[in-house]
Design goal:
Keywords: Kinase, Membrane, Transferase, Transmembrane, Transmembrane helix, Two-component regulatory system. By secondary structure, the chain is an alpha+beta fold. The protein folds into two domains: 179 residues, no CATH class; 102 residues, Histidine kinase-like ATPase, C-terminal domain (Heat Shock Protein 90, 2-Layer Sandwich). It has a five-stranded mixed β-sheet, covered by helices on one side.
């Protein structure tokens, strides 16, 4: 597939593929103007010369229609080289000159078709130079060739035809640029969705696997001393594993939403398993519905960090309508800040989307503090 579309590719898109291959018929309508040289040949020539005149006009018409076939060829085989473009226009010009002995001045009509094709095939500077050359050639020849009259119609037709095709070329260029921009936006959207999905999986599995690890370690320690408690912890591990699997499946389906109340219950269980005293709110009624999912992510990320890294003995979560705090009495932030983990990066992204501010630092009296406040 051509990933660098050109003007010819844009024209091909206009012509179409499949059933659209017959759209060249629209371009054939403009062959109506070749009726002038045909009529001139019929009026001025006789016998074999007349037949030869008809043949040259028909060959020129075929070269014009061949432009549309050339466009479709570039789609399948790649863009044309400069010499191929110039060579094609040279063949058209040669056929136009061959019409002059039998069609006379009316053969200059062919210059309009050459100018139109040149504007599409060549770069803009080269196309402009070709149009000016053809226009000058038409005007000069009408003044110097005996029997030709200078009415200015051919020069005007060349200019007008080239201008119309230039407008179409600009429209095609804008369309190509717009298509490229749309592809870029689609790729960015896909990349953003991949990042979101990776972030969600990190948050889901990071929290769940941390709790499972802690409970499994606790169960291992309790097998000999308290088999009944160990069995309970193993049952919790199984339950957590099933919940994590359900979360992953829901994330893949794109339907997962966090519950603030559910995350608080899960946080209490995780903290107890890690032998960390939990001071958590018992209700979330004062938190507006719009803030609950963001606050649920804060609970998940904050508690995961407490269990994994803090070495704390106590964890406190404070809730209000527009703010949530997760505090512990552990070792506190690292000298580098300790705020650059993947989970905190993902939390900052979610907070930015909700126009909320994330604060990470030392808790009053020592330890670590994670806070999110809605409405900066």
């Amino acid at each position: 597939m051509n990933t660098n579309p050109t003007i010819l590719d844009g024209v091909a898109n206009r012509i179409g593929r499949g059933p659209g291959r017959w759209a060249w018929v629209g371009g054939a309508i403009w062959l109506f103007y070749l009726s002038q040289p045909l009529q001139s040949v019929a009026d001025r020539q006789h016998g074999a010369v007349r037949v030869l005149g008809f043949v040259t006009v028909i060959l020129f018409a075929a070269s014009y229609l061949g432009f549309f076939g050339l466009v479709r060829w570039t789609v399948k085989h790649g863009d044309l080289l400069p010499w191929q473009r110039i060579g094609y226009l040279a063949v058209m010009l040669l056929l136009c000159l061959l019409m002059i002995p039998t069609a006379g001045q009316t053969a200059l009509t062919g210059l309009v078709y050459i100018a139109a094709c040149g504007v599409m095939l060549l770069s803009l500077p080269a196309g402009a130079a070709l149009v000016l050359t053809l226009l000058a050639g038409a005007e000069i020849s009408m003044r110097v060739v005996p029997g030709w009259r200078d009415d200015g119609s051919y020069g005007f037709a060349i200019f007008l035809g080239a201008l119309a095709v230039y407008g179409m070329r600009r429209a095609i260029q804008r369309s190509i640029e717009l298509d490229a921009a749309r592809r870029d936006m689609a790729e960015l959207a896909v990349q953003e969705e991949r990042n979101r999905f990776a972030r969600d999986l990190h948050d889901i599995l990071g929290h769940s696997l941390t709790v499972i690890t802690v409970k499994a370690e606790l169960a291992g320690k309790l097998i000999a001393a308290n088999p009944q408690r160990a069995a309970s912890e193993v049952a919790d591990v199984e339950s957590l594993a099933r919940a994590a699997l359900a979360d992953v499946r829901a994330a893949v389906a794109g339907y997962r939403e966090l519950s603030l109340a559910g995350e608080l219950v899960s946080a209490r269980s995780a903290l107890q398993a890690a032998e960390i005293k939990a001071d958590l709110p018992t209700t979330v009624d004062e938190v507006p519905e719009d803030n609950r999912e963001l606050f649920a992510w804060v609970v998940r990320e904050g508690v995961t960090n407490v269990v994994r890294h803090s070495g704390a003995k106590r964890c406190t979560i404070k809730l209000s309508a527009g703010e949530i705090e997760v505090l512990d009495d552990g070792k506190g932030p690292t000298p580098g800040g300790g705020a650059s983990g993947h989970g905190l990066v993902g939390l900052r992204e979610r907070a930015d989307q909700a126009e909320a501010a994330v604060q990470v630092g030392q808790a009053p009296g020592g330890g670590f503090r994670l806070a999110v406040k809605v409405g900066r």
